[in-house]
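Sequence of Acetyl-CoA C-acetyltransferase (Marinactinospora thermotolerans DSM 45154).
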Amino acid sequence: MAEAYIVGAVRTPVGTKKGALAAVHPADLGAHVLRELVDRTGVDPSAVEDVIMGCVSQVGPQALDLARTSWLSAGLPETTPGVTIDRQCGSSQQAVHFAAQGVMSGTQDLVVASGVENMGMVPMGSNVQYAIDAGLALYGEGWVERYGLQEISQFRGAQLMCEKWGLSREDLEVYALESHRRAATALAEGRFDGQVAPIAGVTRDEGVRPDTSLEAMAGLKPLREGWALTAAVASQISVGAAAVLIASERAVADHGLTPLARIVQLSLVGDDPVYMLTAPIPATRIALKKAGLSIGDIDVTEINEAFAPVPLAWQREIGADPATVNPNGGAIALGHPLGATGAVLMTKLVHELHRTGGRYGLQTMCEGGGQANVTIVERV
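Predicted 3D structure, token representation.
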């Protein structure tokens, strides 16, 4: 099988839902990182064979095949097509998988994997609001026969995880505080500077709260009475975009590209859709086994902090060293622009491996429907 290499990875700052980026059209957010990717790698854009873009709420400004409209909005060649995909929060990590698979199959040489989500302009759930407004069922008869009419939501899933793994509100808040502390340190030390492409006057991630405290978190009301969850231990509603260029060995040579990382393993697993957020655990086990690696071989992990129970339960089950997990903070501090987050995390992961000299990196995310992608890369 052919090798696939990451030869470029760039992202916007992750903005807050009411920040300056919220006014930027999603296609322009996408266009910005696509232009930056082309400029930074020096690749001939006419050689790019496809643009695969993750986006969850594909409605309104995020409709009409955002991958295609973003590429064209960037002024890039009309000859390159684009496709927009939805694997919920893992959409742009799945874009990386599809791009890498195209290269590894030998059918493509240069593919862009990307993601965009403007949750300030297009609120989460906008793409299902039609059904709600029209009084239509969100699930068909087969689903109801299998799972009944019980609540299926990320919020309930996160609370169920707290109960299953015995995670207290204090456990969650201590984790969330550390996420902000690590992100604040990363910003202060300029760790993200080389990966971020400023836009609309925003030069750095907006969601980090360096002055937050356990006392401040303790004053928040739980999402529901009796729950351990509060807004402080959940990912932030955000705006952002990211793009990654995947290349074959031939393309690396022909276009004079510099590999940043080699794709080692691509795995995808389904788990209980009611718990929804647990799939990174079995997916990681499978990915490590297929790669012939142990968790001790992984120098940096990026696991999406949809809610604090997700990385906490994952760490307990997998046995990862907490110091290697989200070393620069995660979505609790930096935000979670849904369809963009997979590519954002991959951008962070590759750059952190180069900053620290680590060899192997692992990325995983919980996804709606009880799914998870795992990507293992090796620094080049």
